[in-house]
Amino acid sequence: MKHDIEQYYETVLGITREAGKIIKEGIARTKNVDTKLGSWDLVTQYDRRVEKVLVAEISKKFPSHKFIAEETNSEQKTTPELTSAPTWVIDPIDGTTNFVHGFHLTCISIALSIEKEVVIGIVYNPILEQMFTAIKGRGAYLNNKRIYTSKVEELCQSMVCLESSFACIPSLRDSIMKRTEACIKVAHGIRVLGSAALALCYVAMGVAEAYHIDGLQCWDVAAGALIVREAGGVVLDSTGGIFDMMSHRILACGTKTLAEELVMLFKKADASLITNNNINHI
Ligand code: IPD
Ligand code: CA
Ligand code: CA
Ligand code: CA
């Protein structure tokens, strides 16, 4: 089947901009906050409303398209599965905790996958009026201006974006803390932004050199990963293997050399954890 990617892109760009108004109006208002998997995993009436509008408006235009959307998945407790059909992968508000606190790093992240390949990525922060976009093979843009990743190749000259949310989960905490400690010891600095999609876009525009987290969902990273690649960066599995947005692991860097250094650093951090655990059991 022939797909008009340009038409899909232009149509959903307009729908996303419209839905962004809900976030802009809501960020300073009272939110009804529910907790899902833990204190770090919040959802509000605004998340649900943005998702409903996006799905309804896109379905009107493209009735045969499918959806993988965060809040619908959470409510139905389904494991997201990608098919070859045109599928919109939607995070209605990425950075919900930021949104709840009125913290301006919050966005809509939406990607289109065709034949299991992401071909459109849109990340829109309506508070800061930042519209990050990419169509596969045609570059990455911020507000229609081309963006490129940083060409820094050494961790000691880099700014690294990490996450802390999963450190609330005991089974993940030690690994997150060890890898964070390893980055802190070498990098210019680490930043925890609270929005995976925006952190990936900041790598794409070259103001951060790397982004890493294990534990995310496809809707957190689908759009941002394409935007990084189209900006000239590399996106890998955090073990150094091929990136799969359904695998929950991601490492995005401006350069391949920096990615290789970070993969080695993470392997050493994890190995030290195993050694410590073995020693602790003696
Ligand atoms: C969260 C953000 C955050 C990450 C969390 C995600 P949400 O997405 O991407 O940066 O650390 O793990 O759940 O819940 O705000 O859409
Ligand atoms: Ca969430
Ligand atoms: Ca998210
Ligand atoms: Ca979300």
Walk me through the topology:
Layout: H1 5-26, E1 34-35, E2 42-43, H2 45-61, E3 66-69, H3 70-76, E4 87-94, H4 96-100, E5 107-114, E6 117-125, E7 130-135, E8 140-142, E9 145-146, E10 159-162, H5 170-186, E11 189-192, H6 196-204, E12 210-214, H7 218-230, E13 234-236, E14 249-253, H8 256-280
Parallel strand pairs: 3-4, 10-11, 10-12
Antiparallel strand pairs: 1-2, 4-5, 5-6, 6-7, 7-8, 8-9, 12-14, 13-14
Helix pairs in contact: 1-2, 5-8, 6-7
One calcium ion is lined by residues 41, 70, 96.
What does this molecule look like?
This is Inositol-1-monophosphatase. It catalyses: a myo-inositol phosphate + H2O = myo-inositol + phosphate. Pathway: Polyol metabolism; myo-inositol biosynthesis; myo-inositol from D-glucose 6-phosphate: step 2/2. With 282 residues, the chain is of the alpha+beta class. 41% of the residues lie in helices and 23% in strands. It has helices spanning 5-26, 45-61, 70-76, 96-100, 170-186, 196-204, 218-230, 256-280, and strands at residues 34-35, 42-43, 66-69, 87-94, 107-114, 117-125, 130-135, 140-142, 145-146, 159-162, 189-192, 210-214, 234-236, 249-253. A hairpin with a 6-residue loop joins strand 1 and strand 2. The model has no long low-confidence stretch (mean pLDDT 95). It binds D-MYO-inositol-1-phosphate (IPD) and calcium ion (3 copies). The site of one calcium ion has 3 residues, from loops.
